[in-house]
Amino acid sequence: NMDSTLHYIHNDSDLSTNSSFSPEEERKSKVQDVVPQALLDQYLSMTDPSRAQTVDTEIAKHCAYSLPGVALTLGRQNWHCLKDTYETLASDMQWKVRRTLAFSIHELAVILGDQLTAGDLVPVFNGFLKDLDEVRIGVLKHLHDFLKLLHLDKRREYLYQLQEFLVTDNSRNWRFRAELAEQLILLLDLYSARDIYDYLRPIAFSLCADKVSSVRWISYKLVSEMVKKLYMASTSTFVVDLMNELVEKFCRCRKWSGRQTFVFICQVKCTFVHRFC
């Protein structure tokens, strides 16, 4: 009788007080009353690595693609039903499975809320940051969407890791650096003037000197927005120091390309300059 099994029997406090479960308790921990239990059990069983090897090598990827939809249907109160499955998929040997989860982790964070995100998704997110470029790009494309859901203290911890996005497995992967510049523009709204000056400024200057013109053009916009953000901050010394560095590094550069960079940055921010001068 399906009705006898479709009931919710665990809450977060119950799960936190038990360090291990018997097979029966493990089965009960995945019981919910939103969808037919047999349907959920079938979905969870498809993530078994041994089944992927014998039935369909793409089955884990399909399960990873569907997981945010399953989580949304079950609701955050039933996340305990999916937590183990999510961790299994996040450590799958196939990079395509991990890549799929990396592209959707920000959507899952919205569904779960800040507490579950900090406890269950942040460790997975940190693992993706150290993964292959094919996986890291999924995190990078939605870096702002994920970080804005974290508390300020937790968000600031990632300032030290942004520099690592400049290093890729393939140096010719310029689209990776272009996406980083795009995300940094969005991240300006999440951090203080000091954080922008101390951590984002060096990355922006490095991107302005990139070998690929497409990356440089996006970086000019990034520096322009950075000047605007620092100008609007209560501490004006940061924008003065930034402007002096722009003049010293690019305007007075011995290479014509450096001086051209200064002109392009001024061109991008000319509207801003006219507004405040």
From TrEMBL:
Keyword Repeat belongs to the record: yes
Residue ranges of the region described as Disordered: 11-30
Residue ranges of the TM segments: none
Name this protein carries in UniProt: PP4R1 phosphatase
GO molecular function, one term: protein phosphatase regulator activity
Record-linked SUPFAM superfamilies: ARM repeat
Gene Ontology CC: cytoplasm
Gene: Ppp4r1_3
Protein's UniProt keywords contain Repeat: yes
Record keywords: Repeat
